[in-house]
Design goal:
By secondary structure, the chain is of the alpha+beta class. The protein is built from five helices and six strands. It has a six-stranded antiparallel sheet. The two termini are 37 Å apart.
């Protein structure tokens, strides 16, 4: 996995903004120097479940398998923020503009994995969570041991997801596009 982040801001923002904000229709090049910019890129990120022995003092065992829930995905996020908005008199001048793009994201859940994730999420709401409740559940065995039981599967694939948001003093606008959305639910009730 890789995470890159670049944040840029003009060196003499106050002088530049004072001058450019007085121009009736400034060029895109001048406006670019009146914004701070943030670019985030994530490559090959993935998420999974792994069983950790509570007596091992959080040492990760290389023998325990990882059950992938979110397959490797990549995406970018870009944001431009107008500096010193008090100088800008045009109410339609964008103050913030952001774009998020994900090429493809795939989720695969077996029913025990989804129930286990829901159970973990509920323990985060407990004021004093206890791990012995989780260990006593058969969900742990269903997720981390090989059995002949076939479980229901939920698969979700989204590709070319793009969301853009623009914020001005007068209004906020958002737009988005999605090329493909694939949802598969395979419900299994029998055992082999």
């Amino acid at each position: 996995s890789r995470f890159d982040m670049q944040a840029t801001s003009p060196m003499y923002a106050r002088k530049m903004v004072r001058t450019v904000s007085k121009i009736p229709s400034p060029s895109d090049n001048l406006l670019m120097h009146c914004h701070s910019q943030l670019h985030i890129e994530i490559s090959n990120a993935q998420a999974g479940l792994k069983r950790i022995d509570p007596g091992a003092h959080l040492k990760l065992s290389h023998h325990a398998p990882i059950r992938n829930v979110v397959h490797p995905w990549s995406g970018t996020y870009d944001r431009k923020t107008l500096l010193l908005p008090v100088y800008w008199k045009n109410p339609l001048q964008p103050h913030r503009y952001g774009t998020c793009y994900i090429s493809e994201m795939q989720f695969n859940f077996r029913k025990p994995q989804l129930l286990l994730l829901a159970h973990i999420g509920m323990t985060w709401q407990d004021k004093q969570p206890t791990n012995y409740k989780l260990l006593s559940l058969s969900l742990m065995d269903d997720v981390f041991t090989k059995s002949k039981t076939k479980h229901s599967v939920l698969q979700l694939i989204a590709s070319n997801l793009e969301v853009s948001v623009c914020d001005t003093e007068a209004a906020m606008a958002a737009t988005g596009s999605l090329t493909t959305l694939y949802i598969l639910m395979n419900h299994t009730t029998r055992q082999e």
